[in-house]
Design a protein that fits this description.
Elements (H helix, E strand, L loop, with lengths): L1 E10 L9 E9 L3 E5 L6 H8 L7 E6 L2 E2 L4 H6 L1 E4 L11 H12 L3 H14 L15 H13 L5 E5 L7 H16 L3 E5 L3 H7 L2 E6 L2 E7 H7 L3 H34 L1 H35 L1
Parallel strand pairs: 3-8, 3-9, 6-7, 7-8
Antiparallel strand pairs: 1-2, 1-4, 4-5, 9-10
Length: 300
């Protein structure tokens, strides 16, 4: 069973010259910790924002516990908890008020709410701060209260974007240990990170992307068994991909400069954006035909 399915995801921002997500497909299984890797600007945060329904996407399908994020967003969002990279919380509320607010949104029953709240507050050592305003919290404490808010309704899928940034070693240890405990109950964890060592040791599988494209889906249990290095593989793959990406972007810049000589900078920029969009639309059409063919073959 899968808690998350992403099929042929494309995301192109309006008037953009570069594609943020390009035919990305992957699945997250029940009971696994799933890593999401890429250099800065690879498309990780954009992909996560598409998965969580924060931004719309150009094409593709995303299902969370069988619910489509576009056509059934209410039920899809009930099944995941999200911790963003900027710990977006309401600073003027106390920690307790914030968690109760989130629990109300999800309709968490009072007894279960108190049980989960007490357990998580103790786990993340916020007993002495939970009744203070969040604006008085340190970065790490805000991250912890954000995590508690994401878990108060016990979602099947826990999604985190760069969760370890700004946390002290003890807090990092607590988060990692709770991830392990959480998936033992049949739940799933997906998180993005730049810390390859953490991903290699903690995750069951990891997706590596660059320039909005999937480079590889690696089985980290197999890596550990064979003594392979995730760091070596990641550096090699992303460096090669970035060289191609830089060459493509340089070619686009040259084409735009050439067009600007005849049409002016503003029109040239619009022409390049249209060229990129037309290319993406063509790729989407091919992807849709491929998916339809595969579906018909399965049915047959």
């Amino acid at each position: 069973m899968y808690t998350l399915k992403v099929n042929n995801l494309f995301k192109l921002y309006q008037n953009a010259k570069y594609v943020s997500a390009r035919n990305i497909s992957f699945e997250v299984k029940e009971g696994e910790i799933f890593g999401f890797l890429g250099l800065n600007g690879a498309g990780k945060s954009t992909t996560i924002k598409c998965i969580t329904g924060i931004i719309p996407f150009t094409s593709g399908k995303i299902e969370i516990c069988g619910h489509d994020i576009q056509t059934d967003p209410f039920n899809a969002k009930r099944h995941f908890g999200f911790v963003p990279d900027n710990h977006a919380v309401y600073d003027k509320l106390t920690g307790t008020e914030y968690i109760n607010y989130i629990a109300n949104l999800y309709g968490v029953e009072e007894t279960k709410r108190k049980e989960n709240f007490d357990k998580l507050v103790q786990l993340f050592n916020l007993q002495n701060a939970v009744n203070n305003q969040i604006l008085s919290y340190s970065h790490g404490m805000k991250q912890k209260i954000s995590i508690i808010g994401a878990l108060i309704h016990e979602p099947k899928l826990w999604i985190l974007d760069e969760p370890m940034v700004g946390l002290d070693p003890q807090s990092i240890f607590e988060v990692k240990e709770y991830m392990k405990e959480y998936v033992k109950r049949g739940n799933s964890v997906m998180f993005s990170s730049h810390n390859l060592d953490t991903v290699e040791k903690l995750c069951d599988r990891a997706l590596i992307i660059s320039g909005g494209r999937v480079l590889d889906l690696v089985d980290l249990k197999e890596y550990r068994a064979k003594g392979k290095s995730l760091e070596n593989e990641f550096i090699t793959m992303t460096q090669n991909a970035k060289k191609k990406q830089d060459a493509n972007r340089a070619k686009l810049a040259e084409d735009e400069a050439e067009l600007a000589k005849t049409h002016g900078k503003r029109k040239a920029s619009r022409m390049i954006s249209k060229q990129v969009r037309d290319t993406v639309m063509s790729e989407i059409e091919k992807s849709a035909k491929g998916s339809a063919k595969a579906s018909s073959e399965v049915s047959a």
